[in-house]
Amino acid sequence: MAEVSVITPFLNAEVYLEEAIASVRAQTFEDWELLLVDDGSTDASPAMAAAAAAADPRIKVLAPDPDRRGAAAARNRGMAQARGRFIVFLDADDLFEPTKLSFELSMFDRAPQAAWVYGPTLWWWEGEAPRTWTENMRPFAGRVHPAPELLKRVLLGQRGDVPCTCAVMIRRSAIEEVGGFEEAFELYEDQSLWAKLLLRHPVYVTDQVQSRYRQHPESTSTKATQAGDYERYRPHAARIAFLRWAAEHAQASGRMTPSLARAFRMAFAPYDDPAWPLGPGDRIAIAARRAGDFAVRTRRAARRKARQLVGRQDVQPRQGPVR
Question: Residue of 67, 130, 180, 323 with fewest CB within 10 Å of its CB?
């Protein structure tokens, strides 16, 4: 039985799949299994997956299920076949750093009470001028957060970066307890599982990057942003659908508390949902938050300007032509 199960759904991913598989095979921790879940591909990616499985007995290919499509359903099918004590996810266009599995397993040794671990991801744009951006988990890193603290602060309050699917490691027992991803969601399917976990279980957060989230025109998030269905920090239809589901789930599970209900009211505020009206105290809190956010943005802008000025001063004028 493998210690870690890696779940990788793929759909027409021939451009990226071999590189994703290679990043798993390059892990310094070797007791893993990789479940490649075909979601109905029509390109060369199924042949690539089959070749990888033939070359490494730790790799298994799951054939398409015509009745269950989408990333959430594919990941759930993979988890149903998983044998590892821990579960991680790697989409076919993303990559693991070589120490991903060993590092995150060591975090469970540090925090055995945690049901899962997550950290920052490097967002990575390929091209002639490659760009990168790394999420900032430092405000929450280095400690265990009890339930439902980060549900309120991160998923609902948007006071920090939500972990990418490639940046988590979860005890399989915790997933079996809460159920997997909600298959009705095309967007926010990852946060449906995070919400169920954060509502019930403690989580350990690290500030070490162990995965790369590839940005490209064909990704689900890019297409949704271009279509106006998704905005990372602005109101949009997909988020209110997620919020309504999450609120119903918290209530149905009997885990809704006054402080969690207030976090939901604050999250619903931009949408004027009549089911979640704001109270006087909520409006004061929102005003204070906006003032604080403005102060933070002002300080960051000042620091950027100062760095630019220092950089210009460090540039020395040329002394004649360069030969």
Answer: 323
